[in-house]
Amino acid sequence: MNNQTEPIDNAGEDRQTMVPAGDTHLPSTRVHEIMPPVEEEINLRDYLDVILRRRWVIILTLLVTFSLVAVFTFSSTPLFLAQGTLKASPRVASITSFKGIAQGMDESFMQSKEFIATQVKLLKNEGLLIKLIKKMDLQDNILFVGKKDNDTGHGILGGVKEAFASLKNMIRPRLDSDPANKMNRKVQENITLDNNLGKIKNSLTITPVRGTQLIKISFQSPHSGLAADIVNNLMKEFIQVNAEQKLAAFHSSGVFLDKQVNASKIKLEKSEQELNGYARRTGIISLNSKLNLVMGQLEAVNDALAQAVTARISKESLYLQTKKNGGENMPQVLNNPLLQNLKKQYSDLRSQYEVLSTVFKDQYPKVKKLKAQMKDLRNRYAQEQQLILDSIRLAYEEALEKEKRLTTKAEAQKKLAIELNSRATQYKILRREVATNREVYSSLLSRSKEIEASAGSDNGNIMIVSMARPPLYPYKPKVARNLLLGIVLGSFAGVGLAFVLEYLDDTIKNPDEFPQRYHIPVLGLIPFKDAGKTDDEFDEIALTFYNEPKAPLSEAIRTAMVAINLSTAATPPKTVLITSVLPDAGKSTLASNLSLSLLASSAKVLLIDTDLRKPGLHKIFGQKDNSIGLSSFLAGTADIDEVIMKTEFPNLFFIPSGPIPPSPAELLASSTMRAFIAAAAREYDYLILDAPPFHGFAEILILSNMVDGVILTTQLNRTPRDGVEYFRKAVTNVGGRILGTLVNKVPTGKTGSRYYGGYKYYKYYSYDYEYGRDA
């Protein structure tokens, strides 16, 4: 390449229209106005582009998630689930006619809706579980508690541990005699018991079968046999405890009645002895008719007294049981419609509270209101229950008072009868006492027999429907489900992360964003071409239009030149400034190729390297020495004829940047630069200025109002949106004119097929071109 100074001698030449080589007959695509912004529409292809661009993020997230799920699944201990079934139904009615307290409690409470729920709670009771632990010796079962700390193992380490264990056993008697050690052992036993209770509670599941009287009992354990044994023993222990409670209730009532029977029997025998002795002493055979009225009244009082005694004993028995066991399970409580209605209202409010408490805290107004209502219902329930208990107590006290009154009245009647005929009256009194005591004794004895018969005929209301069998296969982990879930979650997480990264990535993704967001026309899409690794390969791309005129990049340059030529309504732009937002956007390559495209129309072109910070045009045109150039001319150290270099391409001249000055902006803002551009515009047909990246530098703002228009070189997925907006505002504010943007390095593969469908377009028009081979 020969470089020489060339004078400015074409001031009189006519200005030629900027038309790229080979496109002189292309139809006009002039656009006079920028289209108004268009609302962005949802396009499924945009989502697909995001997935393709972020495919490695999705794949990596999927692999990580799947790996974590797989590691968790295969490292988890297999758990076996054993299940058994209980049936909890109301007790079968007793074969006797006695409706005792325990039987009444069964027939009312067991028929209620809360019966099954109560049995479920009782199955989880800690007392029952502690009995199960002790019965099965689970605290010493290695399958349940795992390997103990004192297991010595094998080998040398096991021998050492065994020696220490022997020493510990030797000194244990002395340690056991220490009260402090005994206390510590007690605390340790309680801690161990609490741990075992926690293990059972965490692995035990009690589930009522809806709409039936069945209760499912499940237990999961790493050992299938142990799981089945725990379920079966729990069901048996629960039935045994239930039977013991029923027998205790019958026994309590029986003991009380037995005492009353014995007392009544002694009283009857004593009254009979008194009657017989009095009759023998007085020789009474029949009563005087005069005493019929008085004795009739006395007989009525004694009848009422007998009934009062019987009623008092019955109510006393009920009252004593209330004091002993409380009133929650009393028939009067369970059969009270008001209490049942209050319990149902409380259950409904409790359900609402449990639903809301999972979402809101207790301070939430509605939750707070529910708690207040629940508290009010509990208070009302307690008040109504207490009223019933008070009524039982009052009934007993009234019966006792009535008995006392009748006793007093009977004594008074006795005195009146004695006044008439002490002997006859005394005899009748004694005889009536015998009858009364015999009636009371017979009634109490009958009730005692009925309780014995009820206890003996109790056939139980809890029964085992199906025993638990050791499961053959693990219940958890479910390998296939977990792995499938890992794939699904990994895919969703990967896609979600891809869209999050896409949202955070504030770069231009689509050429349509320029006219829609910034009112900047897209002048052309320049396909990507690998620049290689050496400077020579990079320089070849900058001269692609000359070296490979049929290449896709060359065709894109021709199309871009048509758009640039038609970008202004009056006359085509003559002086054009090419810049970019960020470095390495390919502006120098575009500047050199655009300059070469103008030579086909015999235009005289001057390419100026105004990048006084990091120049590169001199390398493209083979000039290794950049000691003289634009900065030299502006600084006054060289004449204009010395800085204009002639290239190997006819009619193409260029001015290198020259030495890098300390203050590029001041040189370019000088009146010399403005006068030079005006003079060069008269001498040459076209001036192409290769400017530095905008990047906040003042040179672009200085040069933009010295030229006809500015072209912004951009790159998809790299050029930031904020940078484009700042560039647009800055250039417009200083009076510069933005002709449009050239989107450089557009991919031509699958990810870029939306913009460049490979080379099918060029093959269709018989170009049949491949990079590196000129057809």
Automatic annotation (TrEMBL):
Keywords: ATP-binding, Cell inner membrane, Cell membrane, Coiled coil, Kinase, Membrane, Nucleotide-binding, Transferase, Transmembrane, Transmembrane helix, Tyrosine-protein kinase. Residues 1-26 are annotated as: Disordered. Its main location: membrane. PANTHER family: FERRIC ENTEROBACTIN TRANSPORT PROTEIN FEPE, TYROSINE-PROTEIN KINASE. It is a multi-pass membrane protein. Gene3D superfamilies: P-loop containing nucleotide triphosphate hydrolases (3.40.50.300). Its EC number is 2.7.10.2. Residues 339-416 form a coiled coil. Belongs to the etk/wzc family. Belongs to the CpsD/CapB family. It catalyses: L-tyrosyl-[protein] + ATP = O-phospho-L-tyrosyl-[protein] + ADP + H(+). This is non-specific protein-tyrosine kinase. The keyword rRNA-binding does not apply. CDD domains: BY-kinase. One of its GO terms (molecular function) is non-membrane spanning protein tyrosine kinase activity. It is an enzyme of class 2 (transferase). GO terms for cellular component: plasma membrane. It is found in: Cell inner membrane. SUPFAM superfamilies: P-loop containing nucleoside triphosphate hydrolases. Pfam families: AAA_31 (PF13614), GNVR (PF13807), Wzz (PF02706). Residues 586-734 form the AAA domain. The chain crosses the membrane at residues 56-81. It comes from hydrothermal vent metagenome.
